[in-house]
Specification:
about 350 residues; Triger factor/SurA peptide-binding fold; Chitinase A, domain 3; four-stranded antiparallel β-sheet; alpha+beta
């Protein structure tokens, strides 16, 4: 769900707090004191009016820190990204306000029990009572009543999103299967090979003497590689003597599509059985040895294999489409004034 009031957040003191938000939360409650983290003083200056409701630079800054929570560590927002972050934050606070106003127009209500639970859960995010009191003073004018109003606002936004977006974004198994059957090419997996490598790489300056020396090193590496009996033994040897980047992962390349392999490797792999070690292969000025772990023929993934991830993907797409549509419909009947 897009909005969750009770996510794990970190709220430090009002001197150095930065919100660490696991997913987007209506910013009126989730963020740390904007004035504490901003490289520019916060003045509560209006930045936008939404049907007469005023949103300030404090609201905007909270959302900017939600989008880019590492601003304090970076001493502010990256200059190249700041305009896009600001624009995205402005769009979000406008959307939140429109959703809240829609909830008010529909006369949606939050039960006292749900509000009390949300407030209790929110307080648990603080490390101490003093930290909580500092937050109240900095962000809620020292008022628990104001905090409860903001929590209620967030829960009302959540209700609108649940009703108009989340509940409607469910994708049935039949819809998933229909997509699978209409897009067969997407689930066609090409031929691939799983293998580990040991490589002797050339220096920048190549001479015949250097090439000869490297070949001898490759031949010695081949002798050791052919003495290995398992993928683990080959991998330990790769970690020890290989010079390619895969040595840090025991030389393992995982599954590589055939069209990404050099012709020399592909030809050798087709002639091998899993578990076999190749000969010494020269590719330009490098020497390589590989252990074939699996040859995976081209095939189509079954529906059973892909249905869970595909369903999640289609639901996310549907969710974003519905959310965008909701935003457009709310804007169509709203008066929005950028200050």
């Amino acid at each position: 769900m897009k909005y969750k009031i009770l996510v794990s957040i970190l709220l430090a003191t009002t001197v150095s707090a930065v919100a660490q938000v696991a997913s987007h939360v209506p910013t009126a409650v989730a963020a740390a004191p904007a004035s504490a983290v901003s490289p520019v003083p916060v003045s509560d200056k209006p930045v936008v009016r939404v049907n007469g409701a005023v949103l300030t630079d404090r609201d905007l800054l909270r959302e900017m820190f939600t989008i880019f929570p590492y601003a304090k560590q970076h001493n502010g927002f990256p200059k190249a990204q700041e305009p896009a972050i600001r624009e995205g934050a402005l769009e979000m606070i406008i959307f939140e306000e429109l959703a809240y106003q829609e909830a008010e127009q529909r006369k949606l209500a939050i039960s006292a029990d749900r509000l009390n639970q949300a407030e209790a859960d929110f307080r648990k995010q603080f490390h101490s009572p003093d930290e909580y009191e500092q937050y109240l003073q900095a962000e809620m004018r020292g008022s628990r009543r104001v905090l409860r109003q903001q929590i209620q606002r967030s829960l009302l936004i959540e209700e609108i999103l649940k009703t108009e977006v989340e509940d409607k974004s469910t994708v049935s198994l039949a819809e998933v299967r229909a997509y699978y059957e209409k897009n067969p090419a997407r689930f066609q997996q090409p031929e691939s090979f799983n293998f580990q490598s040991i490589s002797i790489l050339p220096p920048r300056k190549i001479t015949p003497e250097v090439l000869t020396a490297n070949k001898k090193r490759g031949e010695e590496a081949l002798r050791q590689a052919q003495a290995t009996k398992t993928a683990e033994e080959f991998g330990l040897l790769a970690e020890k003597i290989s010079e390619d980047d895969f040595r840090v992962n025991m030389g393992d390349h995982k599954a590589v599509n055939r069209d990404k392999l050099p012709p020399q490797i592909l030809a050798a792999a087709h002639a091998m059985q899993p578990g076999q070690v190749s000969g010494l292969i020269q590719i330009e000025n490098a020497f390589t040895i590989f252990r074939l772990n699996a040859h995976n023929p081209a095939r189509k993934q079954s529906f059973t294999e892909v249905q869970a991830d595909l369903r999640t993907e289609l639901q996310k797409i549907k969710y974003e489409r519905l959310r965008s549509s909701l935003g457009k419909s709310l804007r169509a009947k709203a008066k929005i004034e950028i200050v």
